[in-house]
Amino acid sequence: MRFLVLTASAGVSDEISDRACQLVDGDMNRLSDRAVEIAFSGDIPTDFLADAPVDVNIVPATNRRKKLLIADMDSTMISVECIDELADFAGVKEHVAEITERAMRGELDFEEAINERVGLLTDLPESALEKCYAERISLNPGAKTLVQTMNKLGAMTALVSGGFLFFTNRVANEAGFQMNQANTLIVKNGKLTGKVGLPILGQQAKLETLHALCKSGGYTPADVLAVGDGANDRSMVEAAGLGVAYHAKQALADIADACLYHSDLTALLALQGITESEYA
């Protein structure tokens, strides 16, 4: 048996739910007004619900509830790319954003891309980081509920980013993540030097963190829920028992177990069969 999970920020209507049930001859359970699960054992018709404004994903019935949530930050837990917003303060946003976009699609080497982008921020006042966080950074819908519910249910929660500790420390605290890791912007005399602390943490570091947390917590990769949006998240999403692409680039969507385009981050709870009554 498997579960067909329908999610959408705007809600999953009874009409769509009933239609899905009939198409797969399954048993429906409403998880929230934004999520429905349907237990079924047959095949899914071609172009199933392609015309409906919902995300349609299939998950196994076994080991649904995960013990470790490992999440990307930029454009996943928050709505922007921090480095692009910092670049706006430096007057180079268009240039930096173009590099970011190519890196997220997997067209550029991550380390080269981050060095080039940070180099363009040379001499930006350190005070711009606090201003950027205060004015530009906010959690994506459902982020806090996702993290705090996973905490409540006994899972480990980790924010892992190829971005910067200045932001992950604050975002992790706001959302409730138990730990976070990211790169360090080097500052001297109150200004960015245009350098990043070594070693630079990218795709491989995210995967290594997943395995390290599994080892320390006594988990296996099958116990992991990983979520991201770009090519830099491929390895950890691919390794996880449930790897989710959230409003993602095609490079990540191609290898993810589940893809979300119409849903907020509470959909990650629905994929695990967690009902709204269990939310933190």
How would you sum up this structure, described in words?
With 280 residues, the chain is α/β, with parallel strands linked by helices. Helix content is 36%, strand content 23%. A six-stranded parallel beta sheet has the order 7-6-5-10-11-12. A four-stranded antiparallel beta sheet has the order 2-3-1-4, with helices on one face. Strands 8-9 form a two-stranded antiparallel sheet.
Descriptive keywords:
2 domains, 12 strands, 11 helices, Alpha-Beta Plaits, alpha/beta, Rossmann fold
- Count of the separate structural domains: 2
- Which percent range describes the beta-strand content? 15-25%
Question: What is the average per-residue confidence, as pLDDT, rounded to a whole number?
Answer: 95
Helix and strand element order:
EHEEEEHHHHHEHEEEHEHEHEH
- CATH homology-level superfamily of the largest domain: HAD superfamily/HAD-like
Which regions contain 5 or more consecutive residues with pLDDT less than 50? none
Give the number of helices: 11
CATH class category of the largest domain? Alpha Beta
Helix content: 25-40%
Q: Note the main sheet.
A: 6 strands, parallel
Q: Which structural class best describes the helix and strand composition?
A: alpha/beta
Shape: elongated
Give the N-to-C terminal Cα separation: 29 Å
Cα gyration radius (Å) = 19 Å
- Number of extended strands: 12
Strand order of the largest sheet: 7-6-5-10-11-12
Under the CATH scheme, the architecture of the largest domain is 3-Layer(aba) Sandwich
What do we call the CATH topology of the largest domain?
A: Rossmann fold
